[in-house]
Design brief:
By secondary structure, this protein is α+β, with helices and mostly antiparallel strands. It is built from two helices and three strands.
Length: 80
């Protein structure tokens, strides 16, 4: 099993890195880019015998308490 956690800045939070990437894309000739949000992507391998719901609960807790800053970031957890 594999878990993926995608962490992005909240829409209301200023994202200077995203603005820099957006500006660079415009200077390179890419038109129509109205916003860029730079975040983090984590891929976690889980043991084959791991209970999906237990893993979801544990990783949700880890993402909320340790991997992201819930004040300024949102995260999405996917398990396949």
């Amino acid at each position: 099993m594999k878990a993926r956690i995608i962490i992005t800045p909240k829409k209301a939070v200023l994202d200077p890195q995203g603005k820099t990437v957006q500006s660079a894309l415009e200077h390179m000739g890419y038109r129509g880019v109205t916003g860029v949000h730079v975040g983090k992507y984590l891929e976690i391998d889980l043991a084959p015998d791991t209970d999906r719901e237990t893993a979801r609960q544990a990783l949700n807790e880890a993402a909320h308490k340790f991997l992201s800053n819930p004040v300024i970031e949102d995260y999405r957890l996917e398990i396949e």
